[in-house]
Amino acid sequence: MPTVTINNKQYEFNPGETIIDVAERNGIHIPHYCWHPRLSVSGNCRMCLVDVEKIPKLVIACSTLCMEGMVVHVDSEKAVAGREHVMEFLLINHPLDCPICDEAGECKLQDYAYHHGTGESRFTEEKNLKSKRVKLGPYVMFDAERCISCARCISFSKEIAQQDQLTFVQRGDRVTIETFPGKEFDNPYSLNVVDICPVGALTNIDFRFKARVWDMSATSSICPGCARGCNIDIWVRNNEILRLTPRFNEDVNDYWMCDNGRINSFKHVNAETRIDMPKIRKSGELTTGGWDEAISKTVSELKRVKPSEIAVLGSAFATVEDNYALAKFTKNILHTKNIDLVEHFIPGDEDEILIREDKTPNTLGAKLAGVVPQKNGLNFSQIVDGIKNKSIRCLIAMEEDFVSLSSDFVTLTENLDLFIVFAANHNESTKYAHVVFPAATFAEKNGIFVNFQGQVQRIKPAVMTVDMDRSLDGMSLSRLDKFGTEFDRWGKSKKINSISSWKIITKLANAFGVKFNFETSEDVLIELAEVNKDFKELDYEKIGSAGVKLKSYKKVEERISV
Ligand code: SF4
Ligand code: SF4
Q: What is the pLDDT of residues 53-101, one digit of tens each?
């Protein structure tokens, strides 16, 4: 294989690779703004200047192909001086906005000014003023003064989102970005340009001015918006989610996520509609109860119903652990075979990029965990028929808003003697439930989802609940009842008294006198891995941050259609 020498070390390269390709692959950082591994090379920022022996002038690493025997110096005196000159040029008209710029703290221009700038400006003339607030589309705001004309946004729009909606207009220091006449920058992936814009020229209207980056924590997780399961970071300040950003995973979502997932998949976590304590219906009214009361009421009522009269709905929104615990509870304690889940497909709402018709993150995982009708048991439509003809008198709906699925279902609830709902937010089902358990959201628990490709991926808690607060470990349920959202040891942050569904089920099982030995969600997964060959030998460490593909995926595809 041919080799190139970069910073005195030899590296192999494939024909057609540029200097920056080989450097990046080998962990050598060459400063750059416009180059991005998934976009075509535009070569216009000039920041990646490097010194190549036998070439008199500096060359740009992003468009210079490697050649056998080439010797590259990234940090020679000449290359460093070249980068300083580029920085000085880029900063001539750049406003001193850092104190009010959303990008501050994660801005390449700021970082490079520190590492590759001279620290002072020789420019004494008036800066070129441009528009500060141009709404390019529903989600993206443009500040023309901050733009360094790298063209990443234009390339992304055309090459990745496949919507040619942005272009440069004017020339020289007047150059700026515009949408084509009569067009908006409006496509399902528009917000990715905010991530790849190396400066604060493009901002997310939904997040603008909400927080400085250093005030937030970032937790790696998975978007629950569809069966793709894009890898994300959840950004939280004061226990409130402020934004989601994509996390690189070449096998799942590459560098991207869709706008719908980014904007709409977390708002319910912060919403006023959160259920912060168990609810019990008394004299027709849903009243706040304690955990002990809600659990003993549920258990005593369930004991009155015959197994064949009970139906259970798992959820493709819940984790594998939640669904496995529910399936085990259904089989071993309720002794009913009537268990199923509801699929949430929007036919036609899918593309070749990321978006999937299945609007849940875990249809495959829930089914594999055992939430499928058992032999001689009822499936979902048969359960509905059973409620209609009153052969089903009890329904447990875990993280599934059963009543909202059809306008007919409101009247169906009148046929139920016992309707148990696990929900994070008040919804149509909680209006008619007899007992409501506050379930933790995807952002408040550990667990795994299995995406449509059979990729097993981890979610992690980004938002603290009362239950998670380690200092409350070991406290009895009745003592926990004293807290709730008022409990606040960390300033103004609000904590919900919700619990992962697997844990609620464990408490129910234990109240039935059947010990489920689950202390943590990983205990649930470890048991599942022992009894279910699809999850064999899996644990959280093996799944890691990038996830793993189910070994049995091909066979699963044949067994289960999703
Ligand atoms: S708006 Fe950002 S991504 Fe677009 S050209 Fe300007 S600096 Fe580059
Ligand atoms: S494609 Fe699906 S998983 Fe990815 S961000 Fe959008 S909704 Fe979320």
A: 999 999 999 999 999 999 999 999 999 999 999 999 999 999 999 999 9
CATH of the domain at 144: 3.30.70.20
Which pair of structure tokens corresponds to residue 435? 């007992």
Cβ of residue 90 lying under 6 Å from some atom of ligand 1: no
Q: Cβ(226) to ligand 2 under 6 A?
A: yes
Nearest ligand to the CA of 149 is: 1
Distance from the alpha carbon of residue 414 to the mean position of ligand 2, in angstroms: 37
Residue 489 pLDDT: 40
Q: How does strand 71-73 pair with strand 140-142? A: unpaired
pLDDT tens-digit readout, 286-307: 999 999 999 999 999 999 999 9
pLDDT in tens, 125-170: 999 999 999 999 999 999 999 999 999 999 999 999 999 999 999 9
Verify that 264 and 286 share a domain, yes or no: no
Q: Chain-centre distance of CA 513, in angstroms?
A: 38
The verdict on 210 and 316 lying in the same domain is: no
Between the CA of 112 and the centroid of ligand 1 the distance, in Å, is 16
- Residues 132, 254, single domain; the answer is yes
Whether 347 and 428 share a structural domain: yes
End-to-end CA separation in angstroms for the chain: 44
109 CB near ligand 1 (under 6 Å): no
Phi/psi of residue 254, nearest 5 degrees: 55, -125
> Domain limits at 504?
279-559
CATH of residue 483: 3.40.50.740
Distance 462 CA to ligand 1 centre (A): 31
pLDDT at 561: 64
Q: Which ligand approaches the C-alpha of residue 154 most closely?
A: 1
- The answer on pLDDT for 472 being more than 60 is no
**Four-point Cα dihedral 148, 151, 152, 158, nearest 10:** 160
Any atom of ligand 2 within 6 Å of the Cβ of 263: no
Answer yes or no: is 102 within a domain.
Answer: no
Q: What's the whole-number average pLDDT of the chain?
A: 93
User: Which pairs count as long-range contacts for 246-249, CB under 8 Å and 24+ apart, including other chains?
Assistant: 246/192, 246/195, 247/220, 247/545, 249/546, 249/547
Domain endpoint, select from 215, 248, 270: 270
| Whether residues 260 and 226 fall in one domain | yes
Quick check: CB of 260 below 6 Å from ligand 2? yes
Q: Is 201 in the pocket of ligand 1 (CB under 6 A)?
A: yes
